[in-house]
Design goal:
The two termini are about 40 Å apart. Helix content is about 65%, strand content about 0%. It is built from 18 helices and no strands. It is globular and about 75 Å long. It is mainly alpha-helical and about 475 residues long. The longest helix has about 40 residues.
C-alpha cells in the first residue's frame, strides 16, 4: 500500500479520506491518466471532506455564535482552499508523477527528509483522531440502538417510534438520562448495557476480528453510504427546521436568547473547522485526476464553496431552530433528541452501519502507515498487526469511556495536525519552490510566514478556551 491517503475526518472529518480514495490506498499505486470531468472532481472533493463532523456543527455554532461561526467558516474555507491549492500548483511545477505518495515525495524533495517524517507523523495523528471519534460515535449509536430494541420488545410505552417535537438538554442540572433512571431502579439490563462503561468494550467483539485482515477490500463496497449519510443529515436538519421553526431572541431573559458572536469560545469552532476542511495530504491525488488540469483552481474553489455551504447549512439550520436554550446543544446533535424519535432512530441505525464499514478502513490505513515506517512492510507479521490493532483499539476504548467528547477531540486534532498540513507545509513548499527558481519576494515571504503563525495561534487558543 502507498501513502496516498491519510486523512479522516473526517469523515471525519470528520470527514475521512475513504469514500473516494480507499481503493487507491489498498492497491499498489499505479500511474494513471487524468480521466475525471470537472463535475466528478468537484463532487469527489466535496464527498471526501464532508462527513459525520456535520453532527458537531450546531455545537460549533453555539460555541462561536451563528454570525461569527458563519464568518469563521468562510475565512477558514478561504485559507484552507488557498493552502490546498498551493500543494496542487507546486506539484504541477515540481512534482514527480508516478511516485505514489506525491505530497510526501514533494515535501522531501523541496524541504527535506525531516519535513517528510513530520508530515507522515501528523497524518498518522489525523487517522488516530478519526479512529477515536468513530469509536465514540459507534458506541453511542450501538448503545441507543440496542436500548431502543430492548425496551421496544418489552412494549415500553416510552420507547415507541414517534415523530417527536421534544428535545433534551443534557447540560441542564436537573436532567436525568434514561440510563441514570434505570440504574437508580437497579435494572439488570442497564447495569450490563452502559454507554460509558460497557458498550465501548462490547464493540471490540464486533470489530476487532475484522481489523486483522490483510486487506479490507470487502468494506470498500459500502463507501457510497458516506454520501447517503451526509444527505440524510442535511435532510434531518431541514425537517427539524420546518418542525421547530425559528427560535432565536435578542432578549437575554428569553429561553431562546442568541448571542451572535461568542468571542471567548470561538476558537473551538476554528479548531474544528481546520479538521473539517482538511484534505491537504491527498488533494494532489484527487486533482491530478482532473481531465482538464487548467480548471484545477476553479474546480477546487467550487468544491470548497460547497463544503463550506454544507457545514454552515447544517450548523445554522439546527442552531436557529433548536427549541430550547442554545447551551443545551451537544457536540453530537443526535444526543439532543429522544431515542424513539423516528428520524433520530433511523439516523443512528443508518450511521452505525455506515461507520462499521468505515472503521476497518481507517485502521487499515493507520496500520499501514505506522508499520511501514517501522518495519518497511505493511504486514510484517500477524503478531505485529494484532498487537498494533490492540493498542489503537485500547486507546479508542479509553477515550470512549473517559472522554467521549467528539467536539473537543475534533478541534484539538484539527488544530494540531492542521498546523502542519494546512498552515505550515504548503507555505514552506511555496517558499522553497520560489527560492529555487529565484522568484521569492519579501511580500510572499511575509504572507507565507504569517499563515503558519496563525495556525500556531489556533493551537494555543484551544488550550485557553
Amino acid at each position: 500500500m502507498t501513502q496516498t491517503a491519510l486523512h479522516d475526518e473526517s469523515k471525519d472529518g470528520i470527514s475521512v479520506i475513504i469514500e473516494s480514495h480507499n481503493k487507491s490506498d489498498i492497491k499498489e499505486a499505479q500511474p494513471r491518466r487524468a480521466t475525471n470531468s470537472s463535475l466528478v472532481t468537484i463532487f469527489t472533493v466535496w464527498n471526501t471532506m464532508v462527513g459525520t463532523s456535520l453532527l458537531a456543527m450546531p455545537w460549533g455554532m453555539w460555541e462561536s455564535g451563528p454570525l461569527l461561526g458563519t464568518l469563521l467558516c468562510l475565512v477558514m474555507a478561504s485559507v484552507c482552499l488557498y493552502t490546498a491549492y498551493l500543494n496542487v500548483s507546486i506539484y504541477s511545477k515540481n512534482g514527480k508523477p508516478g511516485e505514489g505518495a506525491e505530497l510526501f515525495v514533494l515535501i522531501k524533495d523541496l524541504i527535506g527528509p525531516w519535513a517528510e517524517i513530520i508530515a507522515k507523523l501528523f497524518s498518522v495523528l489525523v487517522l488516530a483522531g478519526a479512529a477515536i471519534i468513530y469509536w465514540i460515535l459507534l458506541s453511542n449509536f450501538f448503545y441507543h440502538n440496542v436500548y431502543f430494541i430492548f425496551y421496544y420488545l418489552r412494549n415500553d410505552s416510552n420507547m415507541q417510534p414517534t415523530w417527536s417535537t421534544t428535545v433534551l438538554c443534557p447540560n441542564h442540572e436537573n436532567f436525568t438520562s434514561a440510563e441514570s433512571r434505570a440504574e437508580e431502579a437497579h435494572d439488570t439490563f442497564n447495569s450490563i448495557w452502559n454507554l460509558h462503561r460497557t458498550v465501548p468494550l462490547y464493540l471490540i467483539l464486533i470489530l476487532f476480528p475484522v481489523l486483522n485482515f490483510k486487506s479490507p477490500t470487502f468494506f470498500t463496497k459500502f463507501t457510497s453510504l458516506g454520501t447517503m449519510a451526509v444527505m440524510y443529515i442535511m435532510f434531518f436538519a431541514l425537517v427539524k427546521f420546518f418542525v421547530f421553526g425559528v427560535n432565536v431572541s435578542h432578549d437575554p431573559e428569553s429561553e431562546y436568547y442568541t448571542s451572535f458572536a461568542h468571542w471567548t469560545t470561538f476558537p473551538k469552532m476554528s479548531g474544528m473547522l481546520t479538521l473539517s476542511l482538511f484534505i491537504h495530504n491527498i488533494i494532489i491525488n484527487l486533482m491530478k485526476c482532473n481531465e482538464k488540469q487548467e480548471n484545477n483552481k476553479r474546480d477546487l474553489s467550487i468544491a470548497y464553496i460547497l463544503v463550506c455551504t454544507t457545514y454552515a447549512f447544517v450548523g445554522l439550520v439546527i442552531y436557529v431552530s433548536f427549541p430550547a436554550a442554545k447551551s443545551c446543544i451537544q457536540d453530537n446533535i443526535l444526543n439532543n433528541f429522544l431515542t424513539g424519535d423516528f428520524m433520530t432512530l433511523f439516523a443512528r441505525f443508518f450511521l452505525f452501519f455506515q461507520l462499521i464499514t468505515v472503521y476497518p478502513l481507517i485502521l487499515f490505513m493507520l496500520r499501514n502507515q505506522v508499520l511501514t515506517m517501522i518495519f518497511q512492510s505493511n504486514y510484517p507479521s500477524v503478531s505485529s498487526v494484532v498487537g498494533f490493532n490492540a493498542v489503537i483499539v485500547s486507546l479508542c476504548v479509553f477515550f470512549a469511556i473517559v472522554f467521549p467528547q467528539i467536539g473537543h477531540i475534533i478541534r484539538f486534532t484539527g488544530a494540531i495536525a492542521g498546523f502542519i498540513h494546512v498552515y505550515s507545509m504548503p507555505c514552506l513548499l511555496k517558499i522553497m519552490s520560489e527560492k529555487a527558481d529565484g522568484s521569492l519576494t519579501t511580500t510572499s515571504m511575509i504572507i507565507h510566514v504569517a499563515i503558519p503563525i496563525l495556525g500556531f495561534i489556533n493551537i494555543i487558543a484551544q488550550f485557553i478556551v
